[in-house]
Specification:
Layout: E1 6-12, E2 23-31, E3 35-43, E4 54-56, E5 59-61, E6 70-72, H1 79-95, H2 98-105
């Protein structure tokens, strides 16, 4: 199966409150110039030895008896698609100056 054409837009997160946060950026993934997934986040890892950020696709908290669980709203369905989308988003994050901004906060 051929991978659809992907593009991504990344907006660096700037928290003026000064509180510690793992959120580095928000992203949108555009698929084949026809479909967009919003609400993607770029997060900092907990482990200080691994400074490579990771991508989290949109999810919503369950309701009622499932209130303690999170459910994916939109996500890649294959390992290859997840890898391609995550790599592109992280590349756009770096191009937007995310590495320098994250290092300045550390």
């Amino acid at each position: 199966m051929d991978m659809p054409r992907l593009d991504a837009r990344v907006r660096l997160y700037d928290d003026a409150s000064g509180r510690p946060t793992k959120l580095l950026a928000f992203a949108e993934l555009v698929i084949q110039d026809a479909f967009v997934i919003k609400g993607i986040r770029v997060l900092k890892r907990e482990d200080p030895a691994d400074d490579e950020p990771f991508v989290v696709f949109p999810a919503e908290k369950g309701k009622g008896a499932a209130a303690d669980r999170w459910y994916d709203v939109a996500h890649p369905v294959s390992v290859e698609a997840r890898s391609a989308a995550s790599s592109l988003i992280l590349e756009r994050w770096r191009q937007a100056g995310g590495v320098a901004k994250a290092a300045a906060k550390a």
